[in-house]
Amino acid sequence: MYKKSNTAAVAAYITWIGFIVALVIRDKDDPFTTLHINQALVINILSMIGAALAVLPFVGGIISGIINFVVLIAWAVGVFRAVTWSMEPLPVIGELHLFN
After folding, report:
1. DSSP per position, 14-80
2. pTM here?
């Protein structure tokens, strides 16, 4: 593994600022960091979608709550896998590749 892999992978999950820091400090050829940065990007985008849906009356709050619950679980599992050096992708989210 690369020297900064674990730090960048964990930092990616910590808000958008952590995501940007991870992009800056990562080793570009490291598949471990790339996997976790990609998953963190998807989680951050889903979180923004959940927040945007919260403004819709009644149904938006329910859908937003479900999305935010899924985001919380995915975030916790993603951070755990980054800390334990696991390259196992998250279900569904790990299959989406928005970042290379």
Report:
1. SHHHHHHHHHHHS-TT-HHHHHHHHHHHHHHHHHHHHHHHTTSTTHHHHHHHHHHHHHHHHHHHHHH
2. 0.89
Scan for tokens 């998953």, then name that residue. 39
Residue ranges covered by each domain of the chain:
5-95
Q: Fill in the DSSP letter of residue 13.
A: T
Local confidence band at 2 (pLDDT 50, 70, 90 cut-offs): low
DSSP conformational letter for 82 = H
The span from the CA of 59 to the CA of 43, in Å, is 21
